[in-house]
């Protein structure tokens, strides 16, 4: 699933910039109950993928389009840590979704799983919990959780997010440096209610994944990240990020963002042979409420970039957008993007984005493949009143490709979200 967005990249890069503290986090603990939080997020989503030139909806065997809609509720409870040298706490996750519209002939957008008759489920739900321990500024968490590592990232692009089970250690003992390491043994899909419901290319799903990473803030404006993963009987993956922001005055700045992956198969090769190097470089100029971005992405090797069994969000690349990731074998792609924050014009909470990406030189085995995609997006977040933080979002994409590579389609998504902090 192609979901890597600029906001996620920024969050991942910024992870190493907020570790400056005099006292350790555990020393400042107020207690298990006192530091607890309970958040509930409601999401409603309509999605329509309209295939062109008589293309069929391969998931249902019918021609035309996929269309469905639903609503979901996600509750997350995070306790504080008990006081003392070793703090103990628990986290809990519960989520559910209900179908509003959509039938067997229009299924396939990834909002719902199918029942035994091939129809989208009317409702779904799952839950999980984890125990956590903290010493100083180091936290060990075991159980069900969401993860946002560039080499292992749970996806949240539909109604309910993926959820993984395992152990994650995060350490922030050194100012400006964040270290992480983990081992995960199962992954639930966005439409899968079982703990081990995600699979890679029809093979047995996640076996085990060992990950490690480090993010360091060299300065307030320059950060770097290294990460690696070993997914048993699938592949080994390595990742590099460098992010530099250069202030050009009070209301101007220039940002450079480099992302790179190296993936190589191993063991039983459940995802098939994998041999890929892919990198992207983006340059963004910000002026008050305007941002102009240019990006270039290059894939090389015997295969394209593969991800999914290690989480549907594991694609921290500039040209991974609404429909395509532009990650085919030997593919070269270019992006032009424009963002507008209307707060500069007296309308806080309203934003617009448009971008165009073109890719070519794709090795399809049957000649050169080409693709291009145009996105248009608008979002409004209520700033005050009883529905404060309610957001309304429209996403539209037009995707076209050569017949030897992919299928043309138009993608429309309407998303309404309401986050509520109870504790």
TrEMBL record:
It is an enzyme of class 3 (hydrolase). The keyword Transport applies. It comes from the Bacteria. Residues 1-23 form the signal peptide. Residues 104-127 are annotated as: Disordered. Pfam families: OprD. Gene3D superfamilies: Porin. Keywords: Hydrolase, Signal, Transport. Its EC number is 3.4.21.-. GO terms for molecular function: hydrolase activity; porin activity. InterPro entries: OM_porin_bac (IPR005318), Porin_dom_sf (IPR023614). One of its GO terms (cellular component) is membrane. Belongs to the outer membrane porin (Opr) (TC 1.B.25) family. This is Porin D. It comes from Pseudomonas putida (Arthrobacter siderocapsulatus). The gene is oprD_9.
